[in-house]
Structures are given as C-alpha cells and as structure tokens.
Amino acid sequence: MLAKCLPLADARLALYFECNVREDLIPAEGLGSPVMDQGADETRRSLEAALSKALDFFDRASERPVAAASDLEHLRARLDKPLRAEGLPPERVVSELVEDVAGGILGSSGGRFFGWVIGSALPAALSADWLTSCWDQNAALYACSPAAAVVEEVAGKWLKDLLGLPPEASFAFVSGCQMAHTTCLAAARQALLARRGWDVEERGLYGAPALRVLSSAQRHGSFERAVRLLGLGRSHIVLLPADEGDRLRPEALEQALKSDLSSPTVVLLQAGDIHIGAYDDFETLIPVAHRRQAWVHVDGAFGLWAAASGRHRHLVQGVEEADSWATDGHKWLNVPFDCGYAFVAHPEAHRRAMSHRAAYIAHHEEARDEIDWNPEWSRRARGFPTYAALRQLGRAGLEALIDRCCEHARAHVAGIGRLPGAEVLWEPVINQGLVRFLDGAPGARQEDHDRRTEEVIAAILATGEAFFGGSTWRGRRAMRVSVCSWRTTAKDVERAVAAVERALDALGPRGGNA
Ligand SMILES: Cc1ncc(COP(=O)(O)O)c(C=O)c1O
Fold first, then answer.
1. Domain range holding 19?
2. How far is the CA of 221 from the centre of ligand 1 (A)?
3. The pLDDT value given to residue 36
4. Does the model's pTM come out above 0.70?
5. Cβ(176) to ligand 1 under 6 A?
6. Considering the domain boundaries, does residue 312 fall inside one?
C-alpha cells in the first residue's frame, strides 16, 4: 500500500517508487504529514521570513544601487562571524544573512544590469526553483525522483524543438555552458576515438591518438577549460583566422583540416560570441568539417536562442547539422542559476561517456535516468525551473523575450553613441553591443581612450543606476552592452543612458586628467 510505503527507510524505497500513485491506494484519512512533523513550525517561520525578505528585495529593487555598494572589507567584517557553539533559530539566520550581505548583492536580477551575459529569473522559474529546494529531490535517477526525471525529459524535448535541434538528440541538464561543453566534448572524445578502435572509457588517453580542436580566436574560455578538464591539453587547440565579422574563415578551416588528415578533430563553432554576438557560418562550415570526419561542437551559450525568434533564426541557419551543442538556461531563458544544457546528436556516444551502473541503484527500463547523461551523480532537479520558464513564456513569449532584448540592446547602444565622446564599436546584431569613450585631449592615444573608457565605466557604476562591464576587443578597451533580462524595459534603457550621460558630465571632457 502506498500509505504504508511512504515513511519507509531506504531498503524499501524502491518498492514505493514502483507503486503507481492511484487514488484508490490512498486511505480515506489521508497520508498524514510524514515529512513535516519534525520541525514543521520552524520550517514555516524560516520560509515565511525568506518570502518576506524576498518580496522586499524585489519591491525595493529600483531604489538599490545596481553595482556593489559594500566592499570586500565590509562584507568580510559582517559575514566572518565566529562560528557559534550553539545554533540559532532559522528565521534569525535568514534575517541576519539578508542584513549581512547588503551591498554585496549585485542588481543582476533587475532590468538595468548589462554586465557579462546574465539573465534574471522569470517568476514561474524562480518559484519552481524555490520548490525544487523544498522538494529537495536528488535528480540522479528516475527512482530518486520520478517527477524530476519526467519533467526533465519533457523540458529537454521542448528545448530541442525551440532551438531547432534534431528530436533524436540526447541531452543533459548541467550547471552551465561550461559543463555542457565538458559533457559534449566527452561524447566527442568517445566517438572520435572509438572510430579509431580506441575505447577511451576503458583505456583512458594514455597512448591514444591525440585529439585536436580547431576554432577561431572568438572561442570562450569555458571551452578551453573543458579541453583541460578532459585531459585533451590546451596546446592541442589550434586558433584559425576569422573575418571582419569575427566568423571563422571557411578556407582556413578547410586548410587546417587538410593539413592533418589523421588526427581526430573537434571543430568548435560559435553561435553568438561574448563580444559582438558573432555567428559562424554553419551552413558552410559544418559540411566542410564533416567531409573530413570532424566532430562539430557549437558554443551557443546565449546565441543559440536566436533559433526561437523568426527575426533572428537566420543567424543559426544550418546549426542543426552539428554533432553537439551547449547552451544556458540561466542566460537568455531567464532561469535562475545554475542551469545549462548539453545536446548531442549521437546519443550512444553520449551515453557511453556518461552512464553508470551500480548494484545499489535501481534503473528504470523505460524512464530516462539522468545519470546516464550527466557528469554528476547527486544533483539538483534543474528541470523544474526550466519547465516552468517554458510554460510561463510559451513559444510566443520566448520569441518576444529574444526580440525585445535585441531591440533594447540596439536602442541602448544608439543612445550611448549619441553622447559626446562616445563611440560605437559594434551595433548589436543580437543582444550584444560595444561602445567606448574617447579622451578628447588633442593627440590622445589608444591608451588614453582605454583609460577614459575604464573611468567612464567606473563612474557609471558609482551612480548605482546601471551596471556595465569592460573588455578588450580588437586591441581596444570597450564597454559591453549586454541585454539578457526579461525585466529590462525601454524606460530602463533610457535611465541607463541618462546615467552614462551623467557620468560623462561628472568626469568632464578629459575624465580624471581634466
Ligand atoms: C559564449 C559563452 N560560452 C560559454 C560561457 C560559459 O557559460 P557558463 O558560465 O554558463 O558556464 C559563456 C558565459 O558567459 C559565454 O558567453
């Protein structure tokens, strides 16, 4: 009986999972509250304290500075308390935590945060994420959480559909694009070496043919880390020239592939690079790579989401022909951290690279056991927030989110570009643009403009009105304008541009050198 199964210890848990939840198995008096009896009151008080603080956090978001308002010294002074011998009531822990982190929480969940590539959290995704913690499922196996396994299975199917990827591709919900690269690259390593008669899962890389990775210089460092983690070695990454739009040159790829026909090869292509959102020409490059039996992996951390928009889909034309894809939920889909997705066109290679069997874990014949596809064992049930985000948005809502962010990015860059001393380096094609600030002094050199740009970024952050980050692109310091949040409105953009103007006014024409 299900009612009897519920409070069971581990040994009989499997039996419980085999029970179908049928109403006729539930006794008339109900199932009771087997989990919450212990500490029910303090759980309630703690959650209520958290809810009230969370609502206050959002209600007062527009009053708080977007950038950090506390420095390292103050944060340490507040947080580095002696660890007490005796514990504290949970609601007090929650309240003190909220007080002590004040000023150290960036406004990245709000609409005027344009640093890195950080989305905020859609209400349904955020709420589902809270429930994920309440339910506290170990999403390793169907047996550990049947609902988590099915939700992930469904959300994975929806994602492939929205991103225009092959329906038969396998997938994994991981902590972010970094781990999606690692997962996909493990599958690539498996397949490429298996084709050469080498079982990498069994024999490791000792004595194996060396893999090489071909990519343009626009690759993100997270891919390089995946290469290092998998023992492939950074020195095996070959950087090839890109064109004026930062796209890998087909002739350079062709030549590199021809120059070494024996090494197993991964070609890394970019769907939206970190600086200008550059897209490689998938339609041309993927067939070139495949003619030489290379595995094509696509870094689409945020840019792959262009596939969900009729206006931007042309940018990813042909991407579905790749062998693997990595993207994030915590960027453009606005799912809370952490959430990334790996997709692999060759499920068997993916499964061989990841799956695991042990005597004490119960696998389900028909269900999708997450451990077969993920690098982790115990893991958070990441499917719930993704499922909720997709249900909240629907196809049209997702498309509108992508298009809106791109429009805001364009308006934003254009608005800054009209300010005196500002120069547009890249008008956004998607949601990424670049500007810089010129030192107006006669004879000002590159390093003066670089310094001026840094000063302006610091001055904007000091206003507390908006957050931007800097980077070096084509040898010049630039301010990145990255719009990823569902919360960003045209008013937010206006307010941010006004903050840039105020910062410029405050600095004067020559900034700190005036
Ligand atoms: C293009 C690109 N690839 C990969 C990553 C790494 O993603 P994550 O931080 O989710 O691991 C990022 C992060 O900004 C990125 O912009």
1. 1-31
2. 8
3. 53
4. yes
5. yes
6. yes
